[in-house]
Amino acid sequence: MTHKQTNYSFETSLPAYLEDPKGKKKMQMKVVNMVRQGMQTIREIADALDMPDSSVSGRISDAMKDKQVEYDGKVVYAGRLRKKIVAL
Known about the structure:
The chain is of the alpha+beta class. The chain is 53% helix and 19% strand. A two-stranded antiparallel sheet has the order 1-2. α3 (42-49) packs across α4. The model has no long low-confidence stretch (mean pLDDT 87).
């Protein structure tokens, strides 16, 4: 699988983030649903949703703030040790 590369720009990303809170919440729910279906890492979810790791990471952070998921140990995915995400 290939991974999307991002060219993060504060000038363009922050306004987009602030403009679309409903879209962000919808994507957060997609990410949380993937965890509930058994996916355990940011990379695994990013691969499944064809999203950049950074976008999935942001939605995981939001879900943690909302007490929907948490990190719980480590797991190997794609040959690397990664933080394990579990649903609450």
